[in-house]
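[job 0412] stage=fold_complex status=start
inputs:
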Amino acid sequence: MATRVLVVGGGVIGLSCAWRLAEAGYEVTVVAPDPGRDGASWVAAGMLAPVTEVQFGEAPLTELLREGAALWKEFATSLEGASGHDVGYDESGTLTVALDASDRAALDQLLAYQHSLGCTAHRRTASECRALVPSLTPTLRGGIEVPGDHHVDNRALLGALVQACRGRGVRFVPLTVEAVASGGSRRSGEPGRSGEPGPSVDLSDGSRLDSDHVLLAAGTGTPHIGGLDAAGLPEIRPVKGHILRLGPAEGRSGPPLLPRTVRALVHGRSIYLVPRPDRTLVVGATMEERGTDLGVQAGAVHELLCDARSVVPGIDELELLESGTGLRPATPDNTPVVGWTALAGVAVASGHFRNGMLLAPLTAASVVDLFGAGFGAGAALGADAGADVRTAPGDE
Amino acid sequence: MATRVLVVGGGVIGLSCAWRLAEAGYEVTVVAPDPGRDGASWVAAGMLAPVTEVQFGEAPLTELLREGAALWKEFATSLEGASGHDVGYDESGTLTVALDASDRAALDQLLAYQHSLGCTAHRRTASECRALVPSLTPTLRGGIEVPGDHHVDNRALLGALVQACRGRGVRFVPLTVEAVASGGSRRSGEPGRSGEPGPSVDLSDGSRLDSDHVLLAAGTGTPHIGGLDAAGLPEIRPVKGHILRLGPAEGRSGPPLLPRTVRALVHGRSIYLVPRPDRTLVVGATMEERGTDLGVQAGAVHELLCDARSVVPGIDELELLESGTGLRPATPDNTPVVGWTALAGVAVASGHFRNGMLLAPLTAASVVDLFGAGFGAGAALGADAGADVRTAPGDE
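[job 0412] stage=fold_complex status=done
writing structure:
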């Protein structure tokens, strides 16, 4: 009988893990209210941008992100084969532009840091930028081209993951997990082979599901699951982001407004504009610490529109198709937490913050390794990169 | 047997006429895809503002608007009694403010014109404005208070009208009218008593409805109804407007951001912010000639947010609940057309442009008079005010 895995969460991390685990021979159940439409993944921009996302002082995270990016092409190809769906994986690269002299200075500092980490990134003049993306404002002050930072269509990806999961026999339970319980007295060993009961979850309809392994991949919902007091999880807090979706008016033809992802510093504020195959644009950037509030704030929408149109004036003529928000799961050091918890048979894959899409293939591979090695094995993700990965106290 | 009237259109004009006609003893049928939710009425701000809406060179229209406003209090009271629903009729008045010196100069010119027309309007200093509306930006340059310009909750009003219609036995047919035909050879007289067949309409499901009178009140949809080539209608063109609905974040209490309607000139651009009883705000202003395009444009949303927050900085903290557009039916001289068409038994009430809410009670009263007097009677609305009201060629 196949080992049973219960995945809590239907975002990109939960679904990627579920698919890869099912491929690896596990009997997988995903518990999520609306798989593929839940949480932050649905409103993500889909940037796969380890170099553009470089932050000063986060070199180990950058290393992890680059490792994650390296898996993407194979992951996309494999997923498209398994699901029969295009995921919109796009290798046109990323251009980051500066709007004023001070933005230019900030980008030059970032470029020097990117080079110090061995990243491929090129300084571009204003006219070089406009040759790459003709719709950019003529007033820009040059930028950085990162040919290796790509993007994926997050919604196409999520749809393909659900499809691939179904193709592998993954069962979907459209409920919420209220609590998780470890399997009796065991503190280590391989659940499902030890003869002792495995972990279980209590569902929102009052029922209970047993399993051999449980994987908590519910993003910012993870810490709200009951029974985790002794799990040894780090703090996972929500960081809100606003996103706009813009598209050409019906019937308008012509080339897309952006042939590649454009990011910008606009008088010190960051913004990104990511094109989709259907000629819509995803515009985002905001990061707000406002608890679990999911409201779309007028000020944030104004800021995004204001900055977007100052970078690409043609934005004004697009239709505002959607204004949304998502809550990204952030840990204190912005590094994801992937590994066994202190509860027997219960693992976690959360805290991916701004990099859930980028790190999904690597996380899924790590979780497959983790479950293959059994409870008590070291957490895989980030270990090589020296990132701060928490393992269960019982493992120390 | 009661005279049958078929009203085409489920916006504020169609529903107001239907209700009043039903009260007057007619047997009324309303044909509209989604009565009370159709068209421009659903996205209106609900201002009842003849004085604030004064436009240079449109003195007869202003007279008509003031006549319309005078009927509102009784209309609201009567409708609330008939429907059992509050319509959010609010007599707190309107304040128009200027953001810069040039806006102030423009408002002073407007004020002089308002006074020349005999309107009640008071010049207010910046601190007087902020005493009336404390959430206004401290940088404003004073304004005009118009205590007699009120507002109504358009959606509550539409709901109450549907309710009142039902209470009077009005029948609703949720279809579109594709064509209208007059009743045979008659060119004048009183349809329904003459013994000749009355007019009829062809519906989107292929069926036909006969009636004694037909009232075309479909706003910008009116000219798209078939069979009207010989009706003698003036051009009715769509003028697009964007509207935003903003509201306090869930759980936020405290006084409403605006205790009355605020309008503003922001570096030459007009904007209005109208409060609702549920503490949401309706923000609008745009007027665009873009045919029947209903898309929400990024540039228009940006402009509204930009201007709104420059007038009331607290806007930034509100949630953007809705971004919508509507198409206002405009005639060449901005004056509504209410009266018999050249087709026997077919009347029209359309072209209300920016003043559909304000003119609904007057229009309904005029239509009741019109039908009582029979085909061939002069059109009532605006006639006293000297407005350009078209009557049927057969009447000349």
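[job 0412] summary: Chain A touches chain B at residues 244, 246, 249-250, 293, 295-299, 301-302, 305-306, 308-309, 315-321, 323 (CB under 8 Å).
[job 0412] exit 0
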